Structures
1.
Amino acid sequence: MSARRLRAMFVKELHHIVRDSRSLGLALFVPVMMLLLYGYALSLDVDRVSTLIYDQDNTQASHDLTDEFRGSKYFEIEGVVANYAAIERAIDRNQVLMGVVIPRDYSKLIRSGHDAPVQLLLDGSDSNTASITLGYAETVVRSYSFDVRAQMQNRRGGERAVPPVDARLRVWYNSSLESKNYVVPGLIAVILQIIAALLTSLTIAREWEMGTMEQLLSTPLRPAEMVLGKMLAYFVLGLADAVLAVLVGLFVFTVPLRGSIPLLALSVCVFLVGVLFWGIFVSAAAKTQLQAYQMGLLSSFLPAFLLSGFVYSIENMPPVIQVISRIIPARYVVTILKGIFLKGVGFRILWGELGFLALYATIIFLLAVRKVNQKLA
Amino acid sequence: MMPPEYAVEIDGLVKTFGAFVAVDHVSLRVSKGEIFGFLGPNGAGKSTVIRMLCGLLTPTAGRASVHGLDVATQPEEVRRNIGYMSQKFSLYDDLTVEENIDFFSGIYGVPRAQRAARKDYVLEMAGIAERRSALTRTLSGGWKQRLALGCAILHDPPVLFLDEPTSGVDPIARASFWALIQDLSRTGHTIFVSTHYMDEAEYCHRLALMYRGKVIALGAPAELKKGLTEHQLLRLESSDPLEAMRAIEGTVGVFDVAVFGSGLHVTVDNTARAGALRAALEAKGVRVTRLEEIAPSMEDVFVALIEAEDRKAA
């Protein structure tokens, strides 16, 4: 390994990057764009569920229940209707997600101390949203029914009712349960994997297509110096992308950063190096720039999105897929970024993931060097 | 270490790609300081030999050494001692002239103290000093080609491999390129150059004619031409070259008839046959405008050798 040759390679690649101003612009603009788009679009929060009320009872008691829904931030009462058909129509047209039907004898049943059934009609075509909505609605109804029962007992002059168990939920790390806090760190990892792999995926295929590779191979330049020099040049660009992405996360999405910034920087660097090597490997394996680009995109985009656990939890996947997800670097960096951003955990907890990323970078570097070497045959 | 006797030594070199034999037992030696021309039609295997000598391809069989270094076992040392110019233009279009020079200077490991001097030398040699900060893509073909040569000799290699360096360059640029090559040879560099321009063969000290993977002739241009002395060559210009060709092919004393430009080159055993040929043509109604003896060109030699080879194969 000669420092002089490595430097020459690095400087030459920087010249390519700077000269191609359109690609440079895209390389800096696309990650921020993706982060903004996905950050807003991938909100898993369900709130202000549009709801219709069909109040067959129409008494003070039934109005109280309606007000309970109205007062919850999770529901938005779109109106009160007079028949089932209206609810059905509104759900079919995607105007509302839920209908609440209060039966005719609701207040009578309550006054006589019986259980009063309330019907919830939900649009189940989006099962995720429906089950979250159902959870919210049950909470609203249960707390209301507890209040009603307590009032009744108080009115009968008995002892003041005290709930038997008072469960106080406290959610750690993302106490407001905002999905952006959970999505954005993972998204940064995923976007960096895609961008980094694409940045380098053309670099060797281009040399082959242009005929410059043959020239390089006739010189004392070694494949390891070529791979490392190219990686270092694109590392500068990848790091700029990472800084931009983290800044957008912190200041646009106001995701908390609880952990150590040096650890965050170290993790991102190790991750970037590995993925940049991967792009170079793909580039050396492909015959043309087009093929290299497609291979780079497929091999980074799909695994990063689906198998990194940034939205789709890996625990629920079939065992085979879980095993495959273990060789996806994005999976480890998603864990690291979520850990540093949300939990503020340190090296003592994340060393395993960090170690994997370092191992990955080393292995892919060796593979890329071998691939460049093989091409001479 | 004793300086090697030969700049290039090839012994029984073979390269096959699957069932295709691209290079078939080629053996030759190139002395130091020689301009060695490698001639042959496209696909004859010239580039394959050069690529093996530069360590870009591994020989299937045989041995080759460059500057006394074995290409199979000492590829790194070989690369330090050669300059290579491939068929395709191989500099970076999006870099400036100087950036290209600096890059190759770096990967060839030119010592820091010599860099500026080598750069100036290359800029001067290529006649490109005033365009040093121009993007390479804006240069014309001749300039690009001289710059590519300049980048290949930044580290002052003893042996230079040039694979069809003049293809696609205008005649004036070709002539000035060959002048550069003569200069390099005079300063002790060995130049191994392939071409399919027959006129360029005359610039070479020695030639190898390659055809279908084999070297079919080897020697100085004058020697190769002398090889044809048992034959003599007539230049025939007539009203109807095709009819003339049909008429005299196979006549007694005529070895070969080939189209050259607007006329024919007729290889005969003796130029005294010219009178008989003229009579035979005019009997067929072909008007002869010129019929005289000429000295064989390299192209004649080449055509004759290839046809002899084809006859052997048939």
Note: The first strand of chain A starts at residue 49 and ends at 55.
2.
Amino acid sequence: MTMIPQPRQGLRAWLLTDTPTSRTHARLSALYQSWLSFRGNQMAMFGLGILVFLVFVAAFAPLLAPHDPFTQNLLARLRPPGSAGYLLGSDSLGRDILSRLIYGSRITLYIVTLVAIVAPVVGLFVGTVAGYTGGWVDIVLMRITDIFLAFPRLVLALAFVAALGAGIENAVLAISLTAWPPYARIARAETLTMRNSDFIHAVRLQGAGPLRIIIRHIWPLCISSLVVRVTLDMAGIILAAAGLGFLGLGAQPPTPEWGAMISDGRRFILDHWWVATMPGLAIFTVSLAFNLLGDGLRDVLDPKEGSQ
Amino acid sequence: MLDDGKRPLVRVRNLKMHFPIYRGVMRRQVGEVRAVDGISFDIYAGETLGLVGESGCGKSSAGRAILRLYDVTDGEISIDGNEIAHLAGDELRRLRPEMQMIFQDPQASLNPRMTVAAIIAEPLDEHQTLSRNARMERVFELMDAVGLNRNFANRYPHEFSGGQRQRIGIARALALNPKFIVCDEPIAALDVSIQAQVVNLLEDLQEKFGLTYLFISHDLSMVRHLATRVAVMYLGKVVELADSAQLYGDPKHPYTEALLSAVPEPDPTLENTRERIILEGDVPSPSDPPEGCNFCTRCPRVMDICRRESPEFKQLEDGRFVACHLM
């Protein structure tokens, strides 16, 4: 009678092994251990849950939405939440708010994802090059960064959108342009602490050039602090996108963007509170989820905390 | 300074490493730290040259300048016939495999995000085009050579003890078959019980691969055990260079005497008769060295000339070098 190990136990043992058999194995194993410690953080798991739900909703929006988000029904305008067929009420043109929120999640995710890809990559590149090269390259790049940091974020984004024209793509571009400087600062600070460390000296002694050192040795070590910062910034990005939408410079009507929806509801906020409140709650929930996730990730990824 | 018969692998002449000091808003250069201020010596193939001196005397700066981790201020360094003091870019990079370094802090010298195999294979990726399997085979070979278990190849550095980490650093240094290795206090950060293991490993490897070491340390007994010849540094200059036995048996320079008198004696009766020469005052700042001999502010046998003229680094009849007006 031999015990047949369950595949799940086998996978777990494989992931928790002391003697990884390949580089990929070692990496997966380290990842799994991070996941185990992340899982212990209930608030972070709660945030992650909301975000997984958001992605699910965005992916299956046509199946989940009870109405078409664009169909107007002037007979059913400004229905309160809970009325027949309109779970979260309807707006001034009789469109179902729930359906619009569901479709709006796609736009929010689109903006957040694009900004989260563009801004940190630009910041990482500028910061590490400035930090590693030093000298006048550092001075020039950091003064440019300072110029961007000298303006309030939303005002700068407004200026960019005004120059580029309104629309989601331009909003993404404008938010990215205002979001990269803090990443450049973080990446530069991390690079400065690493630049004179012995392991970089060792790599230089082996004959590696500056580009190789930056890409292979400095980037991987900067990424964890950037990931944490990005996650914590997500809420700000969502708010900036909603702010641009609210001011009519983001997604254009009739696109169901959450900020633009609040802006629509502003006119009826005293008599018909739900029109502005529902998208506001959606923005609040998603921002909170990103913050909770970011806190959890910081605990797991912060290179100064653990020995990972 | 030429000793025929033995071939110098490393030849250092009048090496200077000055670090500028910047102050103020305009970052104007207001002075310089003369970490290494004109040192000259040869290291013969297959020998170990010990480099000793107290903290801050420029030992490590000298080691790092010789390997061109810094841009040297002045002087000549030739390794195996190649003049490298003022090379840059690709020309220098091509010569890198010849010379490697073992660092003091094994933790800080290993990238925390890379596995052991990746760390050891890094120099191979840089200079050789090996297939995946051939590269792994070489990594295993190196791990065997330094006494690391092959099963640990895919672990991260933080999972190892200090001695094992130092072995990883040694394996990495050996990866490109270097001729010359600078050991920058390789045992200072280790437990005493581990120190002997690492030193024995270094000796074995020297024999096996015909390595030449520059062994930087402040552990005088360890240097005595390990080094063929010993150079004593004080405030950026080499004050005495002699065969290990000569130097420890009959130190010529007053600073060497004082330094050696600080080594404890294992025999208690001898220890009681040991006379310590206690030097007065502190080491002067390397950004503002005294006029004349660098040691004149603390020398127990100081003379008038010492405060005016810097002594020449000259060879005595028995082959040793001393920089002192007494000789």
Note: Chain B has a mean pLDDT of 88.
3.
Amino acid sequence: MRSSDGSLIEVHLTVNGDAVRRAVPPERTLAELLREDLLLTGCKQGCDQGDCGACTVLVDGRAQLACLTLVVAIDGATIETVEGLQQRGRLHPLQAAFVAHGAAQCGFCTPGMLLSAVALLRASPRASRDEIRAGLAGNLCRCTGYVKIIDAVEAVARGDDEEPAP
Amino acid sequence: MAELQPAGPVGRPVPRVDGVAKVTGAAHYVDDLDLPGAWHGATVRSTVAHGVLDAVDLDPDYDWTDVVVVTAADIAAAGGRNVVTLIEEDQPALVPLGGRVMHVDEAIALVAAPTRARALEARRHVRPRISARPAVLDTDAALRAEVKLYGDDNVFKRFVIRKGHGDDAAFEDAMAGADRIIEGVYPTAAQEQMYIEPQGMAAHWEDGRCFLVGSMQCPYYVHKAMKALLGCDGDGVVVTQAVTGGGFGGKEEYPSMIAAHVALLARKAGRPVKLIYDRGEDIAATTKRHPCVTRHRLGLAADGAIVAIDADVVMDGGAYLTLSPVVLSRGVLHAAGPYRCPVVRIVGRVVATNHPPHGAFRGFGAPQTTFPYERQIDKAARLLGVDPLAYRQRLALRPGDTTATGQELTFSVGSEAVLEAIARAAGPRPARDAVSAGGAPVRRGRGVCFYFHGSGFTGAGEQRIAGRATVALTAAGDVEVRSSSTDIGQGAATIFAQIAGASLGLAPERVRVVDPSTDKVPDSGPTVASRTCMVVGGLVERAARALGTRIAAWAGEHGRGGAPFAEVAAAAAAALGEVAETVQYEPPPGIEWDDATYTGAAYPVFGWAACLVDVAIDLDTCEVTVERCVQAVDVGKAINPMIVKGQIEGGTLQALGWGLLENVLYQDGKVANASMTNCIVPTFADAPDLETVLVEVPYPYGPHGAKGVGEIPMDGPAAAAINAVVDALGVDFDVVPVLPETIAARRDAWDAARRKS
Amino acid sequence: MTATGYVRPASIAEAVAARAAHPDWIVLCGATDLMVEAPLRPAPVGVVDVWALAELCGIAEVDGGAVRIGAATPWRDVVTSPLIAARAPILAAAAREIGALQIQARGTIGGNVGTSSPVGDSLPVLLALDATVELASPRGTRRVPYRDYPTGYRTTALAADELIVAITIPAAHPGARQLWRKVGTRRAQSISKIMAAALLRVEAGRFVEARIGLGAVANRPIRAAGAEAAIVGAPVGEATADAAAAALAAELTPITDVRSTAPYRLATVQQVVRRFVLEASSPSSPD
């Protein structure tokens, strides 16, 4: 049993492959930890109430909302954020597809959207448009009408965009 | 429909210049900025809709160490004026002691503290005392003027447009000549912009100068407002746009208020301060689309031609004048619709109430007046027993026709082209009746809509603004576009890079579009009114050409005449240092507007659009599914088809949301559903695969033929969707939004209609 | 949220002890409600975090074909469980409509039962399927029929020292139809305007069993006793559907709030229950 009565609690996480050890108060959210302590500001806060999905990150491979997640509750977890999607300086295929298909406009929902899409395609690599719709429905976008986001994810699911052209 | 040949990068789906930064998390929005030592601000707000501020008490039992509190007294003490300067100066930055509280959530005091949590805690210990007065909470009460909020009649602004008649008696004579008159009353609700990035701003002071950075559309609006508030000249304040997470009009005027607050806090705290709104505060306190009621009469000849149009438009401006006169202006200028009509009377009023001020939102008054005329035209078609799309094709304005203000349409009239595009795309109607997976009866309907939208500022607005833009070859040999037009997601930076690149023979990625900052870019006018590509893009094109001409001249003088810009730029920069060309707006020839009579050329040019929507209604729950939405838009020229389609798709879904889903609820002057949970916008699951048809009827005075596109997709789809609901159920719905509750409330009527048909 | 105390027990026994030791702390079981409501409620003194407690997770068949779901089982596991799909398909259907995937990865059935919101998405299903709640405390373990569990607006039968351990859904008669409908503010990520869940069984042209659970039409999830009475013993068909709808009008007084109106809620729940009866009346459509 772990417990604390007012003092900080030590937590170990793996964030984008790096070991992170932090002592946090119980109320510290994952969004606060990422943004304020680790300066991983790709995790956006659009509502702080679990409505917009902009703070979506992967916790042990599952898309979760960093604004609703207490750091103490995920001790030992592996976290993936948008900053960790590139591999050896190359854009992740979904990142490349978002650029090529115009899926990012203002870009504020984009990091969370990408992480939901990553989780979706890991689970269903050949996701259909309807599956993409359902898989991303927790992420709001107000700029695109969603069409180009679906186009981008679908292109990756279909293997269209191995070398995305403009 | 004319086709322009792609000139270099123009006309191609070039990826956004800021795309990689946005998909990697490298794009920094204001709350992402790491400002060492920054404190966090919070705003103390009114809880009453109308009253007098008697006192601002600080809880004596609270520990105020490390907390800064700002009130209105701090403004005058430093030589500033307590106003948020816009059209008028009726709105204070903070309600002064003894001053009038005009709306719920009006700013009364400010706090800042080392952490956000501490600032929010301190805010709870600042206690305004307000003597409440009776509040004015709807436009009818405002017009009765028993409680006076503005002048003697609570009318911020009134416009009258007359075409084809002298006075009201003459108008009624003309209307009396109609074979039949269709009358309707069309209320439309407020709408929240719901950009996903909440509003926010940061400030710090250095050597007596105030530096502001934040989420905004119009750095020079903020700059102007800060000069008055801080009592400084133009050099005393520098306003820089951070990467901005959507605006849609919501970050047009309100950022001046936040800038005022954070500047005052930073000055008093003596350190940087960030003021980032939380979502509930953003929904409750910042501007929304004006609620509006239009009374409309449509006089028809026996053959269905329009004899006369009468529209009376009343908008709820909220507690201060802000941009309301301009929103009303655009509303009335579009209220007769894109239809031939010899006699038109439009009266518009925007009135003061004790709601938080309503303001800019994509469409800017036009969606509110488009919905009424498009319902009226639909009713006419049904009455006449003619196809609604064919009826619109018959009545549509064409080249040589005149608008309600007497503007003769001579060029770039895409009316027939967009209607034809919709006719071609329409396809067969889906089966009228069906059964849902759960066994519920489903009814389908189809609706269309036809509309136009003036590009750029109204009347002589562009001449008044006299926007400027610069294209420069820097001493280092880079090409820079400098304008105050902000990229708020709509792709302005990419479009400018394409336009300048086309003029200079450069790939867009070789053009740097400078992040707007008032100490680095000229005032190109605000990023509003579907003007950025057409007007400022036109300036960028002219400035780039001028730069190209200068560099070509230098090359000629140095034995390299005729060499492409790219080949000589580095040498020219090395020899000349920076070369900058700045140009100023010049109106197209023959554009005359009379502000006194509201006649003439209201806009340099119009965009044209038509939309078709198929809906399916679950008759058990009255939920409406948009199964198909096709919009055809005449954009003049799509500089970047991918970005233009993205703009249209986004605007379309906002419009469908406004028509069928979204709903800002006011209760006693307060937004009752101020959360993203309850003030909803469409999700992926609510959106159909929107179809967009680009139509290009070039505007001869726009860059490569381009005209405005930002707003027009917002104007019509709500009307098309509601026309489709009416088509499905056979009874009229004359209100925005049409929610399942709206439909269910009339179950007996449509059930009877359905059984008859 | 601010909390000073934090306990993450490693076993049910530890959790029960922690709960007993800190009766003023709240139990965190996913926290999707807790965190959203944090700004609106007094800060908890501390939290007992049972979200990752292995003993509380999992879905298993128990005596006589019943299904036992650990309180800390996230919705995602409910959605994907073959056992739930076979035995309680409407629970999977309801789970699929809770928030979006991010919430389903974190939110739990125990959290839904514990919060006991009138709009808790799974709760009408627990009523229709006649579920039982298993509660543990230092005094031992007791089982409460779920229909007796919500006692008022966000109040429940849970004692201050008790912990929700599991939800058990008894085996339904193989001929029973399970029906579910959520009408939300939109198609995803939505709060319910109304919810209805039903278990209906027909024998020889008559309804012999009817349980109807409703959400968002009262201050807590409720059984529609009047409608059930109108259905049981009645013949299949329109007349019974109409009678059930009429009975709902007599027993329900939903409210108007920011999400919907009282007339809409009543009319829609009537339509939905009416449709349930008609669907269950048709012999050819086993779910």
Note: Chain A is about 30% helix and 15% strand.
4.
Amino acid sequence: MVAEYQRGDKKVNATGKFDPQNIAAIGIAYQMHGLVLVDKQQKVLRDSIIWCDSRAVETGNAAFRKIGEQRSLSVLLNSPGNFTASKLAWVKENEPRIFESSYKMMLPGDFAAMKLTGEITTTSSALSEGIFWDFKEDELSKDVMSCFGFDEKIIPEIKPLFSSHGSLSAKVAKELSLKPGIPVSYKAGDQLNNALSLNVFHPGEVAATAGTSGVIYAVADNLFFDKLSRVNAFAHVNHNKNERRIGVLLCINGTGIMNRWIKDLSATNYNEMNKQASQIKPGSDGLFVLPFGNGAERIFENKIVGAHLLNIDLNKHSKGSCFSGHTGRNCFFIPLWPGYYA
Amino acid sequence: MRENGVLPSVIRVGRANMFLSDLFAEAFVDATNVPVELYENDGSVGAALGQASARVFLLRQKKHSVI
């Protein structure tokens, strides 16, 4: 992992726009909802279970029933779903030796900070995105810990999101040409972080991204939940008990990754895809592209529906129709937004 | 989201990934029926802003503890 940092560091330093020795602190944005397990020596015990890995869907569904649907929604703001707590429970059930050897569980950003500093911390925001957080009591959820039979010791020390999460070790500082001892002073999930970068902090403000997945992320000031957990609610970067700021997240797992899949399959590049798509009228000649196929879709209550190309007319549709369809000009998110037909 | 009362009047987006494509951005606006504000921005800006905000907070804390 430090090698990855080094590669990025080298590229940034090569711009010559700054002296790396002047860097005063480190901020981390990371892929949400993953699970990393380490032992006491901070050795990784198994591959990370990343956000879109759907193995824990049934574990989460069972916990939803056990905790009680109403309680789960009103206190956790979500079903445990396929999030980090359910993934940890999956390891406990299916890989008991690994679970027993686990000293700490972490979200990916916590792990990245550990590799830089040697210290293991987390935040209420990270725990909320893993569905470990009780929003009513503003503490680690006793419901979740008891339902899954987890010991609190496996949870890292909880610190404020904007605070010192450890100091850069001398060894890593040398490898990255940075000053030893500078703090990791911020770590947040990628969607929260994207919202921060766009100055989205207050109720009613909304950000979006279209990377591997497509996300619309809104800020609310109440303990928001969707009764079917089709959209999910987490503690935003500026959330606290006295001034609630809840990030409401809608995700379609297969957005950019399907674009990449179509690109690879058609042996073309993104510029060419755009060019060909622009020559097709909106509606993509009736071809429908459903950009799923990247794990369980939360908008469909964690069902794995797979990606689809629908209504193909072999005499009419071209590569351009597929490219146009996937840019959203006849993409499945359209039926979810009836306004499109207005 | 609309069913749950989230009714955005504008959506802010960084010009990154699929939003590098004007075609995608236009289709997104058509599909959501909400205007998009595009910024020259990506997640790395957020991480930098986040650490800077925290750094100010930490320096203030240090100053207080010295006093």
Note: Residues 192-252 of chain A form one domain.
